[in-house]
Amino acid sequence: MDINLVDFFQRNTRTIMEYTENHFTLVLSAVVISLLIWVPIGLLLTKSDKWAARIMALANTIFCIPSLSLFAIMVTIPALGLGRKSALLALVLYAMMPLIRNVYDGVKNVDRNVIEAAKGMGMSSGRIMREIQLPLGLPVIFAGFRITVVMTTGIAAIATYIGERNLGRFIQEGLVRSNTSMIIMGALIISVIAIALDTILGGIEKLVIPKGLRARR
Description:
Number of strands: 0
């Protein structure tokens, strides 16, 4: 490791810890809110292909907006302004596409023969969803969850441009000052957080999803 990087870490340990904590809490909050909103909506969309097409189109459109532009748009909303509220809303909107799409695809792609057999046994639609479609669709749904977590971790760095004091600030200030150590430190910690979270989720996936059902990556 570059001696300048080690020296930078030693001289800025408190700031690094503060930015890391802020970054992690922003990501955690965004992911939790996204799960609470988009997973139920994804399940509801499986009941209507017409509405699914509309919402998917909206989600794809939002996802195509450059991250800095979306953060800037959020700031212009009077109730949000600079800071965490705007950052959270932008991240939740970005999470819309991978979560809704994977929930929808996971449930809709369950073998129709299995569903018809369940109906023939007298199972209600709610019970079929709980006991058949969700369990069989869980690998695809979980894959969307992992994508969302890693994606949110990276995009959260852009929130520094609207007032968030997180790891993105090292990259921003490092570019302005031409400070390589500062840039590398910010990028390195963000990468470590993303890899660590994905590894943890991968371990959870192995515990909750049978090997034969896991989505191939």
